Amino acid sequence: MAREIIEAAEALIDQPIPCLDKGFVRLVDYMGGDARIVQSARVSYGEGTKTVREDRGLISYLMRNHHTSPFEQVSLTFHAKMPIFVARQWVRHRTARLNEISGRYSVLQDEFYVPNPTELRKQSSRNKQGRSDERLDATDEKSVIAQLASEQDALYKGYEDLLNKGVARELARINLPVSLYTEWYWQIDLHNLFHFLRLRLDDHAQYEIRVYGEALAKCAKAVAPMAYEAFENHILHSVQFGKDECKALAALLCGETPLLEGRQLAIFEEKLTKLKSV
Ligand SMILES: Cc1cc2nc3c(=O)[nH]c(=O)nc-3n(C[C@H](O)[C@H](O)[C@H](O)COP(=O)(O)OP(=O)(O)OC[C@H]3O[C@@H](n4cnc5c(N)ncnc54)[C@H](O)[C@@H]3O)c2cc1C
Questions:
Q1: Which of 45, 230, 239, 243 has the largest count of CB atoms under 10 Å?
Q2: What is the CATH number of domain 1-109+181-238?
Q3: Residue 42 half-sphere exposure, CB side, CA atoms within 13 Å?
């Protein structure tokens, strides 16, 4: 079979997708697509080309049954630029290959993330790891943005001072903050990209990495639209219930009161809300 050339993916190659105030995701290259997935899944049976409808059905079947290895046959390479605190979350996904800009070798650019005022929210009281929907008042928004910018400015000036004094780049950088932008090449197969997206497109993921998740998802969708459709259907927009929650769901369906309380009930209700919004 000839190398797959996918028009929608070709159109994205080398086109930076803007993320946050100064970042981007750029699809550098890809290998394979939906056809590669079905081709590799069918290799064991030696079956030939089927109709598009049958291919879609097979991909859906593979995704639904967690038969994941055919999705690993598709690979995507990205160039991405993100604040270091986003990179730290991103790099936890170990099943990828990356190469990052070196602050030992290069002088780092004066580029820092400053949140949009609409994203300057108060600490959530329900989720210790996240922000609430409540914005700061307008005066505080302005002063917080000004504070972030002036501290970043001062730290970068300090960095430049150290460089001018001849301090090695690998040491001069050590006071730079996690709002500084970094960049890397990142290569991952489609199965592990879906795993990344399942975690990082979720409402519980931090907004700033979700923005990058959306950009990566756009590329994945262009490279393998049927696989992405199956991922959305069976994984991304699915809701998983534990044993107790299944019992509660069964009770609800029978018009009975679910035997859950406290935090367990709150989580169950959150899942029901998600279920209704699908
Ligand atoms: C909302 C959210 C909050 C988080 N909060 C925190 C936090 O507070 N502190 C923190 O430290 N982390 C936190 N994390 C990171 C999280 O614990 C995972 O490290 C991260 O999501 C990567 O997931 P992963 O290991 O499944 O992915 P990958 O590293 O891409 O791995 C994919 C899969 O490969 C397998 N795998 C990979 N490496 C190994 C291995 N060495 N051994 C066995 N199996 C392996 C596992 O099945 C794994 O699920 C958070 C993540 C999210 C999404």
A1: 230
A2: 3.30.1360.170
A3: 16
Per-residue pLDDT reduced to its tens digit, 94-118 = 999 999 999 998 999 999 999 998 8
| Domain parsing of the chain, residue ranges | 1-109+181-238, 114-178, 243-277
- Statement: the pTM of the whole predicted model exceeds 0.85: yes
Distances from the Cα of 58 to the Cαs of 10, 89, 106, 168, 179, in angstroms?
25, 33, 48, 56, 44
pLDDT digits (tens, 9 = 90+) for 238-269: 999 999 999 999 999 999 988 898 989 999 99
Candidate from 131-135, 158-162, 171-175, 250-254 with smallest mean pLDDT: 131-135
Look at the chain and count its residues: 278
What separation in angstroms does the CA of 68 have from each of 43, 105, 193? 15, 39, 12
**Distant-in-sequence, close-in-space partners of 4: CB < 8 Å, separation ≥ 6:** 32, 33, 35, 36
Atom 25 of ligand 1, residue of closest alpha carbon = 93
Which of 173, 200, 210, 263 is catalytic? The answer is 200
200 catalytic per annotation: yes
**Ligand 1: which atom is nearest the Cα of residue 204?**
1
